[in-house]
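does this look right to u?? manganese (II) ion version
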Amino acid sequence: MIIVMRAHASSAQIEHVTSRIDALGFEVHLSQGAERTIIGVIGDERPLDRAMFEVMDGVERTISILPPYKLASREWRPEGSVIPVGDGAVGGPRLAMIAGPCSVESRGQLLEIAHAVKEAGATMLRGGAFKPRSSPYTFQGLGVEGLELLAEAREATGLPIVTEVMAPDKVELVAEFADVLQIGARNMQNYPLLQAVGKTRMPVLLKRGMMSTIEELLMSAEYILAGGNYQVMLCERGIRTFETYTRNTTDINAIAALKQLSHLPVIGDPSHSTGKWPLVIPVARAMVATGVDGLMVEVHHDPEHALSDGAQSLKPERFAALVQETRRIAEAVGRAV
Ligand code: PEP
Ligand code: MN
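got this back:
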């Protein structure tokens, strides 16, 4: 951190700041310019609250040097993380293709979709058993029965399972059935939940909150990493903007930025980021071109009767087309599908 003193700050004010830095166990680097004194705080400044200095007499402002996240940063692991899931991995040369219904609705529905996405080239099966719905009057998911059906679908297809966990006290239960724990956008800053999945050693798919900054997403990942669980994937699923034609706005910038700022794999979710099935394939292409490590796509054999997110769900044959189209783009950017 750098502390910039006001012009004409007194030597007593400067001394007060440096002695506080010293008392906190940091080294001081003093630079006396023609008009101002600048004080460098040497050491890992992350636990320090800059406001503590900003309220001191004679201080003009403070400037952070380090990003607030550490374990999530690219500097921490320049080579990029590869997270093993089932027989495959996320973050390697081959893109993860996570597909399946928004919600697990029935045995017949899930198995039909699971076989279809496997056939089309999916590498993991998604499906919500515990659903974070905006309305308490709509379908909330099948709960434990949904988890059991997901396990059955894994048995039948060999596809690892990605499913959401919404509450800290359900982490143990969901972890018994899932291969990857999904944290939904609405729970990105549910810190007890982040701490609970941080205690497991399960891969976690952390979705970006719809109103969260890139830095806030990385700080949420930091919670999980700080718990000792390094198997975290980030997911860009669109953010709220003034645009209402689409459900969300795909933040392509975030995909590029996250790949530069962090070593964690990045998954793109063109289903939630657009909310409209005709936009899913074109946006998926853009996500792959931008450098995602995988896609998560909602697929339903009968979107008209889907209990959630039918409007953004691809029919299986369209998901097969998505796999084919993104394969060519992946190859163009040095990846494979
Ligand atoms: C989902 O994946 O079905 C979901 C609820 O996504 P999000 O948390 O991104 O809204
Ligand atoms: Mn959904």
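Residues 316-332 form the longest helix (17 residues). idk if thats expected tbh
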